Amino acid sequence: MASRHAILVSSSALFALTLGAAHAEQDVPQASTTQASTTQASTTQASTTQVAANQTAPATGTPEEVTIFGSRVRAASSAGTKSASALIDTPQSISVITRDDLDQRGVESLNQALHYSTGISPDTRGGTATRYDQLKIRGFDAEQYLDGMRLIGTSYYATPQIDVSRVDEVDVVRGPASVLYGQSSPGGLVALTSKRPTATAFGDVSLSGDTHNLAQGTFDVGGAVDAGKRVLIRLNGMASRSDGQVSRTENQRDSINPAITLRPDENTTWTILYSWQQDPKSASYGSAPPEGSVLPHPNGRLPVNFYDGDPNFEQFRRTQHAVSSLFEHRFGDNWTFQQNARFLRTEATYRSVYGTGLLPDLRHLQRSTAASDESVNALTVDSHVLGHVTTGPVRHDLLAGVDYQTAREDVRAGFGSNDVAPLDIYHPVYGLAIAMPAFTVNQRVNHNQTGIYAQDQLQLGGWHLVLSGRQDWYDLEQLTVADNSRSRLSQGHATGRAGLLYHFDSGFAPYVAYATSFEPQQAYDRTGKVLGPATGRQTETGVKYQPGVWNALVTAAVYDLSRNNVATRDPSDPSGMGSVAAGQIRSRGLELEGRAQPLPGLDVTASFSTIDNKVTRDNGGMAGTRPYGVPTRTASAWTHYTIQDGPAAGLGFGAGVRYLGHSTNGLNTLTIASATLVALSADYDLGRLRPDLQGAELSLSATNVADERYVSSCYYGSWCWFGAERTVQGTLRYHW
């Protein structure tokens, strides 16, 4: 769906406005906030900026009003520093995907939101297992954060998923981020920002349908309650029903998200958000065997909607409740206290029949069962102080804080072994009577993490130096209910970061950075002692460019990243049960990404990445292999143009192409072929046709236009996932 920036300017000021766009975006306000904007509105309302014609027109003559359609290249982010920082001055690779971007492309999931970002391998479970947002950054599984706080699930299947209809912005932080966020993957993280109340009243409703029988409705309304705009409210929600790509499966989701912001004085802001989301059905978590998907099969290829389960047994029901508190108070002009807190409860019921490999006849698929009943209560609190001080010619942006995470997960689970009748993959019969596996897992796990951190962002002329440090303490206690046995893990670890950047007047900003991370491991040595955490270490060198004549930001980065102290088999342990922290996975790569508006109404995004990731040390025979689900090369480009004047003004067209290079399964015994995917979109402001249709928009989008059959990834053994097939979606929207 097209985003729209309506800027009313005089024709004489239009050229100057376009040329000055980059400089205007580069002037980041010094207000401290954990998000780049704490009062962001909906797409239709927040992306509209109006400058009165009589404020920009010459003193004489009648101004001519011109409407410019398009979106802005976001030039600031708080995800990498926990303070609003200009991307051009941050010595780290960070991408920002705005609400306008999401609507312009008709995005329906987090994986889709990241399709045109460099260094990311989205859709690692293809277009079939969509109940989780599984993706990798720089070759490693990525953590997800919402409003600056980690989304915590169980170690089994109760993992929360945030619907993108309630998201205002998606930030991608590449490289180790433990120094600000605690335990985290070395590849990076994805930071989501919730929609929040705004001072300006607005409303937005939409209806969508697609070629998978989607029926979806969304609404988003809000504004100020009082004349002084000290109480702001917002309410958004959605209801969705569709068929899954896998045959005989469905998706259902309902969500409602009220929020209120209190501003008792000009220095204090307190936002409270509640979210309820229920997924009664979430398609399938199954896969296809390599034979017939990646490998040839004597009976031909399997269809991309192949289903290895059984609708009589398949079930996935998830419910999420969350209450968040986002508080900020400014002390004068230079100091700010912020505290973000959230309680999240996730419940899940999981039942699955899944394939475990073909029998020797290559026609009948062996199958097993899995079942679990789970819940997790998670509390996260992040409190910090930001300050701005000057020592001589050096400006310091200071940050000091403490965060705390605690979670209790309860899991009852059972797993069968080839306990379901084999499935004829070319003439499947469903509707079998399938017995529930015995629940052999019954455990309660308590996690606690406390971290203290500090950061100094120094600026001297064009020089920008970031120094960050953190100390974490992590505790885990696991109770096995059957025998009342307990196991404990207690670890501490320090992480740090240093980055140096020089911003030339020409717009170029080369930088170099070093950062570390850590992840606790639940692995034991031969004596029963818990292994220390896995650690990450990265050096990154890059250059950013922000021209002064038009709105654009281009980034190039090369990195050398490793995950160290990974648990691997202890060759000196005759029982084969002990582990040693001697494994290592290395990732090296080049990333290019650019976003620009070379002309009014024209948005261009392009990216390229190449990655060399492999297991460099392992005692189990995996040394030299490449982890699964990571293409060696990816490239993408998306462009959207909205006609600016004439009878077709307000009509927009978009086109995108993505190239996914070849990848391997975890054992490196299969090569997954490359794929090239094309997407198209069109949108129109119906108010251009008739005045009584003002506020109505119609949009169409199509992904995988050529309906290319491809496999997204294959796991270690017999599991492969088909990529998403062609989907055409239409949306009718009305906003006021």
Write up what this structure looks like.
This protein has 736 residues and is mostly beta strands. It is built from seven helices and 37 strands.
Secondary structure category:
mainly beta
Catalogue the unreliable spans. 1-69
What is the makeup of the main sheet? 22 strands, antiparallel, barrel
Multimerization state: single chain
Rg, Å, rounded:
26 Å
- Please indicate the percent range of residues in DSSP E strands (runs of 2 or more): over 45%
Helix content: under 10%
Number of strands: 37
Shape: globular
Number of helices: 7
Q: State the distance separating the first and last CA atoms.
A: 16 Å
Question: Could you report the average pLDDT, rounded to the nearest whole number?
Answer: 89
Keywords:
37 strands; single chain; mainly beta; 736 residues; five-stranded mixed beta sheet
Outline of the structure:
The protein has 736 residues and is mainly β. The strands form six sheets. The chain has a 22-stranded antiparallel beta barrel. It has a five-stranded mixed beta sheet with strand order 3-9-10-7-8. The protein contains seven helices and 37 strands.
Write the layout of secondary structure elements.
Layout: H1 11-19, H2 21-26, H3 43-46, H4 53-56, E1 76-77, E2 85-86, E3 94-98, H5 99-104, H6 110-113, E4 120-121, E5 136-137, E6 140-141, E7 143-146, E8 149-150, E9 167-174, H7 178-181, E10 188-194, E11 202-210, E12 215-224, E13 231-243, E14 250-265, E15 268-282, E16 315-331, E17 335-358, E18 364-391, E19 394-415, E20 420-424, E21 441-460, E22 463-480, E23 485-502, E24 508-519, E25 534-545, E26 551-569, E27 579-599, E28 602-617, E29 633-642, E30 651-660, E31 663-664, E32 671-672, E33 675-685, E34 696-703, E35 711-714, E36 720-722, E37 727-735
Parallel strand pairs: 7-10
Antiparallel strand pairs: 1-2, 3-9, 4-5, 5-6, 7-8, 9-10, 11-12, 11-37, 12-13, 13-14, 14-15, 15-16, 16-17, 17-18, 18-19, 18-20, 19-21, 21-22, 22-23, 23-24, 24-25, 25-26, 26-27, 27-28, 28-29, 29-30, 30-33, 31-32, 33-34, 34-37, 35-36
